[in-house]
Write a structure and sequence with these properties.
CATH class: Alpha Beta
Number of domains: 1
Distance between the termini: 35 Å
CATH topology: Rossmann fold
Strand order of the largest sheet: 3-2-1-4-5
Shape: globular
Largest sheet: 5 strands, parallel
């Protein structure tokens, strides 16, 4: 049995991560899907709705899914690493967007920070559909 943690921020991300997991999951596997929001003034109603749509998409397309929308004032990578530790997660599944070197320098990278912070196996799924 493998426990997967899927980090989502939008329905589009959720769709691509579900595509990756579909066919990979065995009957005994389980999936925890997490949407992390900072809370307070940094989180709008639209952010909450967008996150909920993402978690609901995963829940409606895969079996044995539990959903969590975390609004704890942490960064997404902090929330995902902490959740993985607290819930004995075996593998993390996240998406990554293609950005320019300048974009990476200026805005940082949640995926990069997560990879540096976790000791758990992590799959990074490109969030661009092939043309």
């Amino acid at each position: 049995m493998t426990r997967y943690l899927v980090g989502v921020d939008s329905k589009e991300t959720a769709e691509q991560l579900v595509d990756y997991l579909d066919g990979k999951l065995r009957d005994e596997d389980s999936v925890a899907v997490v949407n992390s929001l900072p809370g307070g003034e940094d989180t709008s109603d639209e952010d909450v709705i967008k996150g909920r749509e993402a978690t609901e998409y995963v829940e409606s397309h895969l079996d044995d899914v539990e959903t969590h929308q975390l609004i704890r004032g942490n960064s997404p990578q902090e929330d995902l690493v902490q959740f993985a530790e607290e819930n004995d997660i075996d593998e993390l599944v996240i998406g990554i967007r293609k950005r320019s070197p300048t974009g990476k320098l200026v805005f940082g990278s949640t995926a990069q920070d997560l990879l540096l912070e976790t000791t758990r196996p992590t799959v990074v799924v490109p969030l661009t559909k092939p043309v």
